[in-house]
Amino acid sequence: MNADRVIEIRSLNKSFGDFQVLTNVDLNVSLGERIVICGPSGSGKSTLIRCVNGLEQYDSGGITVDGISLSAPGGVDRVRAEVGMVFQQFNLFPHLTVIENLTLGPMKARGLSRKDADALAMEYLERVKIPEQAQKRPRDLSGGQQQRVAIARSLCMAPKIMLFDEPTSALDPEMISEVLDVMVELARDGMTMLVVTHEMGFARKVADRMVFMDGGEIVETGTPAEVFEAPKTQRFKSFLDKILQH
């Protein structure tokens, strides 16, 4: 594996029954790189990043994360220790307070004491700008606040890579920017990020590379400047025209 590559995806194929979701997908991600994956609904983008941390099993091909093959014995567990994931629907534990949501992983998986886990949780709640919400339950927060808690929870596990699966699509428009602002800060700090999103303003600001998927394949890749100014394929041009009209 190339020394600065933290993710290598090779000839990845995945089907759900008769429906081919991913077809011979190849993608390499370098340390510190921010990649935005976009494409129409059903193009395979969410399935792709869910394969990266073993939430979906692929049919053939291979994925290596930080030198660990997902198909190796214990590979999925080892990869998940390195990779944080933020979902569309927050996935917080409703019966736990915000700080309990954040401390559960570090205490169980990393063996931190309650005191150290609490200190770590408060550090990341400060970072996502909601330390005052620590003792509330998720139901008492706005959608934007819940998603920021979800990001902080992932960061408490000290991931090398962060995966985001349409993190703003369940949010009201006024809450989207507060989540994207946190993600922009993460990018500035050099976090390796793989982001499935339709937020093209965020892509312009943050992405080192954009990946356009359609029909389970990577159709086009390029820097934001390249793809916004001169998309190479009609499929990507049509997609951007539709997205940018909204």
Automatic annotation (TrEMBL):
<keyword id="KW-0067">ATP-binding</keyword>
<dbReference type="InterPro" id="IPR030679">
    <property type="entry name" value="ABC_ATPase_HisP-typ"/>
</dbReference>
<dbReference type="GO" id="GO:0015424">
    <property type="term" value="F:ABC-type amino acid transporter activity"/>
</dbReference>
<dbReference type="InterPro" id="IPR017871">
    <property type="entry name" value="ABC_transporter-like_CS"/>
</dbReference>
<dbReference type="InterPro" id="IPR027417">
    <property type="entry name" value="P-loop_NTPase"/>
</dbReference>
<dbReference type="Pfam" id="PF00005">
    <property type="entry name" value="ABC_tran"/>
</dbReference>
<feature type="domain" description="ABC transporter">
    <location>
        <begin position="7"/>
        <end position="240"/>
    </location>
</feature>
<protein>
    <submittedName>
        <fullName>Amino acid ABC transporter ATP-binding protein</fullName>
    </submittedName>
</protein>
<keyword id="KW-0547">Nucleotide-binding</keyword>
<comment type="similarity">
    <text>Belongs to the ABC transporter superfamily.</text>
</comment>
<dbReference type="InterPro" id="IPR050086">
    <property type="entry name" value="MetN_ABC_transporter-like"/>
</dbReference>
<keyword id="KW-0813">Transport</keyword>
<dbReference type="GO" id="GO:0005524">
    <property type="term" value="F:ATP binding"/>
</dbReference>
<dbReference type="GO" id="GO:0016887">
    <property type="term" value="F:ATP hydrolysis activity"/>
</dbReference>
<dbReference type="InterPro" id="IPR003439">
    <property type="entry name" value="ABC_transporter-like_ATP-bd"/>
</dbReference>
<dbReference type="InterPro" id="IPR003593">
    <property type="entry name" value="AAA+_ATPase"/>
</dbReference>
